[in-house]
Amino acid sequence: MGNINSVVDIIRVHGSELADSVAYIAGDRRVSWAEAYERSCRMANLLASHGVGSEDRVAFLEKNSLEHFDVFYGCALLNAVAVDVNWRLAAPEVEYIVNDADAKVLVVGADFVPVLDAIVGNLPSVRQVLVIGGDGRYADYDTELVAQPATDPGAQQGPDDVAFQLYSSGTTGRPKGVMLTNSNFFGLLPLAREMWELDESAVNLAAMPLFHIGGGGWATAGQYVGASTVILRDLDPAALVRLIPELGITHGFVVPAVLQFMLMVPGIDTADFTSLRVLVYGASPISEEVLAKSVTTFGCKFWQAYGLTETTGAVVNLAPADHDVSGPNRHRLRSCGLPGPGVGLKIVNPDNGDECPQGEVGEIWLSGQQIMKGYWKMPEETAKSIDADGWFRSGDAGYVDADGYVYIHDRVKDMIVSGGENVYPAEVENVLMGHPAIADCAVIGVPHERWGETAKAMVVKKADAEVTEQDIIDYARERLAKFKCPTSVDWLDALPRNPSGKILKKDLRAPYWEGRSRNVN
């Protein structure tokens, strides 16, 4: 196979060398690598016609689809940068990201035209809007695409050029654009072949949202080796149980909640999973019970991956050998594994910056080729996250055991992980404080059977204010993505604070997590 050293090489090499092999499977559509390359070339020329050049940003707002890859590789062919926007976000959040990225073109799925309508007048950098499926008022994606020549513009990508920009929720209440370079991607991609046994015969499931590293990054890992990608628009566990044997799916990345829901599907015990070779899971903790049942039900190799958007995905991995549910090392099922090749990991005391002794909990710091270039247009935030020696502060708390296995204990920052989505209390609190009846509030994560944890608002009402729990939840839902919104509200006379005024979140959380071995679910 030709040399693949940057994201753009994936589409160029496979477009010619695997021309007739299936690149994408989406519903009843099959797209060969030759067609995928042709579509990407047309997209590149379309973007160039609207002034998109090297390292310019193109925003994409749509669920998982073929068009994601048209845009992702179309950008790569120009050395431009695809910015996938979380489609669960509310209109003001989408507007912020499109503007922050200085996107020159915005591609929107038909389902999200109402969001587009709400913000289209406030997007100064956007020169062209394309609507997939068309709606008569905006330029139609397919019409514009087929009108372009299928010639490769021929741009090259350097190792330090940004290939993908994903937005993480902001701890400060503002989302941050994580810049991932070709070099970052290629710290991980060669491992996909060795570790996860991905190859060109694989049928790889892209079920997680492509705006996440666990979605877009995982799909790229399969495409790097020439695998076919099964693009799942909506994550329906029952459909997944049916599709695995139907399409001969061999590989997939899922969050633990998906495994949990699949295990509840009627007929799961008689379903045929013989095609499965490897399942990778991560993005939120998993219960031993769900994991043990998954290993026996699916009968394939399981890998756990721990990583962040800022680390281009997996940096710590729990290998199949450590998924022995009845062996002497069963305790390892609670760990997220060992650092990957080339990954530096240390546990640091956040109070004094010293490295913690083995077994002691501190903040997980990471280094290596996969650490992001930085946050787009946010040098101060980048400097706060990555020190002068290249160590990235993960914000997660954990410890390392005598065998080098990493255990996640809690989160240093007050982040909540709900169904694999990161929720930052600061952002939610910021919105809730705009409610006329709220004098003070704090948002914490509380255990939730289905989502692992969800946000709870602890609210101090203004004197004489009349407000219900539902009022507050509805207020949040008008302004934030649903997964960020509180699912319950508690009323307090005052919030507990330390002498410097910081809310004692630990005290607020404690009663809800009593009797649990760790404070993340």
Draw up the topology in text.
Layout: H1 7-17, E1 22-26, E2 29-32, H2 33-49, E3 57-61, H3 66-76, E4 81-84, H4 91-100, E5 105-109, H5 113-119, E6 128-132, E7 139-140, H6 141-146, E8 162-168, E9 176-181, H7 182-194, E10 203-206, H8 213-224, E11 228-231, H9 237-247, E12 251-254, H10 256-263, E13 278-282, H11 288-298, E14 301-308, E15 313-318, E16 338-339, E17 344-348, E18 362-367, E19 374-375, H12 379-385, E20 392-400, E21 406-411, E22 416-418, E23 421-423, H13 425-432, E24 438-448, E25 452-461, H14 469-479, E26 488-491, H15 505-509
Describe the structure.
By secondary structure, the chain is an alpha/beta fold. Among the domains are: 7-234, 3-Layer(aba) Sandwich (Rossmann fold), CATH 3.40.50.980; 416-513, 2-Layer Sandwich (GMP Synthetase, Chain A, domain 3). Helices cover 28% and strands 26% of the residues. The strands form five sheets. Strands 2-1-11-10-12-13-14-15-16 form a nine-stranded mixed sheet. Helix 1 (7-17) crosses helix 2. The longest helix has 17 residues, at 33-49. The model has no long low-confidence stretch (mean pLDDT 93).
